[in-house]
Design a protein that fits this description.
4-stranded mixed beta sheet, about 15% strand, 3 domains, about 290 residues
Length: about 290
């Protein structure tokens, strides 16, 4: 299955006395690049979340946002961290010495400060389990999104491969006749200009030139690379880096075909091949 590196997932999970809110966003990147925006009460769980993500993703820039919204319950009285509030008051007093016209913290600001409101009803162990389940579900949705996008990319790449195959099939039967026609024209010009030159030497040079402009090997390699791209797209392993390498190889063969061209037809085919390969390369930048 082909996965795109682009995807999104958003989930909410009610837990005891609180709600967990998760967002996962993924875009293309050369390597796996993780960024976390975690609630202050959840920062200790970053290694666990990182491990879950790296177990399922191999490439992409991934942003994980996880918030904890606590709710008060009648049978659980909320408490305030008096030590933290005193620290906030001291910091505010010190800051106002440098910024006397600055706004002071409101009661709402203080109550929203991470750690000021203590809710003993939430079990740390239970919270870790809930976060783990939520992240696993989020990764499942993210992978489903990446899979849908990946199938679209796969269809586009396969379409371009079919067009490349059509061009190869089109140009291959023309090559012997085009080469022979060019040899005849070149031989005629040489004999007119060099009537006193050894005819055997001319024949040898023509044979060598024909070998230099022979592109049958390039067309064979193009066909082999096309088959390899299809094989990689049908496998379950991450394919982006291997496909990117194959695009370089395909482009090299198309360039060689153009440099050896002795006719307008093969030059046009070379240009069309390079356009199709570049279109595939652009899409492959999003493949995991």
């Amino acid at each position: 299955m082909t996965f795109s590196m682009t995807g999104f997932a958003a989930l909410e999970q009610p837990i005891d006395n609180a709600t967990l809110i998760l967002e996962l966003r993924a875009v293309n990147s050369r390597y796996l690049d993780l960024h976390f925006k975690l609630d202050e009460n959840l920062r200790s769980l970053e290694p666990t979340i990182r491990e879950l993500i790296t177990a399922q993703l191999s490439r992409g820039k991934v942003e994980c946002k996880l918030n904890l919204i606590q709710r008060a319950q009648a049978n659980h009285a909320l408490q305030l961290d008096e030590t933290l509030m005193q620290q906030l008051a001291a910091m505010q007093e010190k800051a106002l010495l440098s910024f006397p016209h600055g706004c002071q913290l409101s009661i709402a600001d203080i109550l929203r400060w991470p750690g000021v409101v203590i809710n003993d009803a939430i079990s740390t162990d239970k919270l870790a389990e809930d976060v783990k389940k939520l992240v696993q579900n989020g990764l499942r949705d993210l992978n489903a999104s990446r899979s849908r996008e990946g199938e679209k990319l796969k269809a586009l790449i396969l379409d371009r491969l079919s067009q490349i195959e059509t061009l190869v099939i089109k140009v291959k039967p023309l090559l012997p006749a085009l080469t022979k026609e060019y040899q005849i024209k070149l031989e005629s010009k040489l004999q007119e200009s060099l009537k006193n030159i050894d005819q055997e030497r001319i024949a040898q040079e023509l044979v060598l030139f024909a070998q230099r402009i022979d592109v049958d090997e390039e067309l064979t390699r193009l066909t082999a690379h096309i088959s390899e791209v299809r094989r990689i797209l049908s496998s379950d392993a991450p394919a982006g880096k291997r496909l990117d390498f194959l695009m370089q190889e395909l482009n090299r063969e198309a360039n060689t075909l153009g440099s050896k061209s002795v006719s307008v037809q093969t030059t046009q085919v070379s240009m069309e091949l390079k356009v199709l390969i570049e279109q595939m390369r652009e899409q492959i930048q999003n493949v995991e």
